[in-house]
Design goal:
Blueprint: E1 2-6, H1 19-33, E2 37-40, H2 53-75, E3 84-90, H3 99-106, E4 110-115, H4 127-139, E5 142-145, H5 151-155, E6 163-166, H6 177-192, E7 199-204, H7 211-223, E8 232-237, H8 243-248, E9 255-258, H9 262-271, E10 274-277, H10 286-293, E11 298-301, H11 306-309, E12 316-319, H12 324-336, H13 338-355, H14 358-376
Amino acid sequence: MNIGFYAPLKSPDSAIPSGDREMAKLLYRSLQNQGHEVKLVSRFKSREPEGLEERQKQLQLQGEQVSKELIQEFSTIGNWRPDLWFTYHMFYKAPDLIGPKVSAALKIPYVVAEASHSPKRARGRWSLFHEEVEKTIAHADLIIGMNTNDHAAIKQIINDNTRYEELRPFLKINKHRERNKITGRRYLEKKHKLPLDSIWLLTVGMMRDGDKFASYKVLSEALTKINTNKSWNLIIIGDGPLRTEVEKLFSKKIIFTGQLTPRQLQKYYSSADLFLWPAINEAYGMALLEAQSSGMPAVAGNSGGVGDILRDNETGFLSKQGDATDFADKASSLIDNWELRRNMSRHALMITNRDHSFDLNSNKIGTWISDICSQFGGL
């Protein structure tokens, strides 16, 4: 089957790394893994973060034009034509302004993964884009929820003929975690002059304005409240327009690596003892999932779908969102307790293997799409 893939917030081939880009890549590959021919049909970005009505109107007009061009292209005899449209991640700041129009014109199924509906946006600065989100949800044949918190709001407006399925965020599991831990610790010890008897803490996050910077502010405050006799070192991986401002939040003893390649990053995931991220308004956090898949216990803020990845008191601790004291208390308890970290590490490995593996979730998506296409006319 030919599948047209589109991500209105960030394309899977974007040059800017993020969890959103990584999940888009994984969904793209999961569709290919099922034997489909998948094409990125547009890089049109509909993101409008400021709530500017005129800008939203401009993007709507641009979306209309892109839709017309795609419909003409796909309707021309001899050209590649999708049998199904697949959109990843749309919400009131980045709605899908082209997928519903193109799929309706071509009379093909429309699937959207990670759709968010925020009723409070019906009035105010994002009302135009909120309306677009509601139209898309009503048009969808299949909605794949990747954050359990989204279901309740979507359920209010979902069409009776629309199928809704829940999918846990997933990734390719590293099969050489234990071997990497030994070599990784040796590498990091030399590179950063880290004492082997210290507890190595790890944070991975983009350094940009908004919720990411707010998370770094909570983290910096929490570090001043950590109460332990054990020595610890924090490594922060990430980059972005606010890197200078982020570095000013922390003491000089904190190690900043900047942006790393996936292979470099894996050495840190495999070697550190505890992952820390306050997760202000986080959808779920791919970095958190990557850390857990390497057997690293974590402390994270309890927001969005973070609890779908970090099982509280099982693979780590969820703290009250934005509460630096609570975050510090939970981090301190794990820094102090090696046996607790070891037990949580084992559970993290077991649960990511069981619930978050690429093959398992790829097969689920394949089954749902096959069912939808059968109902649509046996594509």
